[in-house]
């Protein structure tokens, strides 16, 4: 596996996920205890909102209904994004194991070649 593939498939996604979780972590702490379910959903919002093809747009609502529908859209985006986030973590793990395997094979080839 080349360095470019490793960076594209492992390093960049993991770094992006770490940055998002670092940013949203303070919003998920109550009384010094982190609610990890809320952290997972809130950190999935950036990954899920871009995957949503349907937004419920409130028509004829007052400001409370409009804000409620916007919050509902973000909640649905967070749920979709948490699944996308899980998938990206699994794929990064797969590519990490693949690169470790290729590295091990490279070391074995170098050791027995001489």
TrEMBL record:
Family annotation (InterPro entries): DUF6050
A Pfam family hit: DUF6050
Domain of life according to the entry: Bacteria
Keywords: Membrane, Transmembrane, Transmembrane helix
Membrane-spanning segments: 6-27, 69-90
Protein name: Uncharacterized protein
Organism: Blautia obeum
